[in-house]
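Structural prep section.
Before we set up the soaks we want a predicted structure of the protein with coenzyme A in place, mainly to decide which crystallisation condition to try first. Input record follows.
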Amino acid sequence: MSSVNCHLFCLSVYYYRFHKEDCKDVARMIMELAVFEKMPDQAKISHEELERDGFCQNPFFECLVAEVSDEHRSKDGHTVVGYGLYYYTYSTWKGRSVYLEDLYVMPEFRGNGIGKGLMCKVAKVKKQCVRLQLAVLDWNSPARDFYAAKGAQDLTDSEGWHFIRFDGLSLDNLVKDAPKD
Ligand SMILES: CC(C)(COP(=O)(O)OP(=O)(O)OC[C@H]1O[C@@H](n2cnc3c(N)ncnc32)[C@H](O)[C@@H]1OP(=O)(O)O)[C@@H](O)C(=O)NCCC(=O)NCCS
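Run finished without errors. Recording the tokens verbatim:
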């Protein structure tokens, strides 16, 4: 539990590794983030899929959530108000790395240190990693400034990396063209 100073009150925030019961809140906030990122149609994940993939024998991801006390719940009645979803990756140059897929704090709770709290907790949980990486949309200046203020470097600017994806047909075609076992 940590206390942060708010504009109007002292807010206690509890950060913890998500439980199965938190998947509904995480799915809700994933959709809120997709709306914020102007791509609501892209978010297809259900809380059942999060439960399946986050709580199987070798989970595909991990997640930290931020919870406020009941007296500080959101206007819609939510107490889980932020999350950071991450998983391991591996750098062939540097070794163990963690990828922060999503970082999100509900609008009414922003500016109270919760985003920083989640990001620092992820870094701490994964302290055996040498890198924490993430992608941010080019127009999302507040988030880009937030990361820059915490010392992150923008690899597109400094090294020219592009972010590449295969999915749908392009992924099916790769599978089709795979050499036989
Ligand atoms: C980005 C986001 C996670 C930050 O969370 P937050 O709780 O609002 O931020 P915090 O209150 O923890 O800010 C922590 C620190 O960053 C600084 N900061 C926050 N926003 C900043 C900005 N736009 N520019 C510079 N610094 C900023 C704060 O001043 C604070 O500095 P301090 O540690 O010196 O006190 C949150 O605003 C959010 O969910 N935004 C919408 C979704 C989003 O953009 N997610 C990231 C997608 S990649």
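Observations: The pocket of coenzyme A is lined by residues 33, 36, 103-105, 110-116, 134, 136, 140, 142-143, 145-146, 149 (CB under 6 Å).
Flagged for discussion at group meeting.
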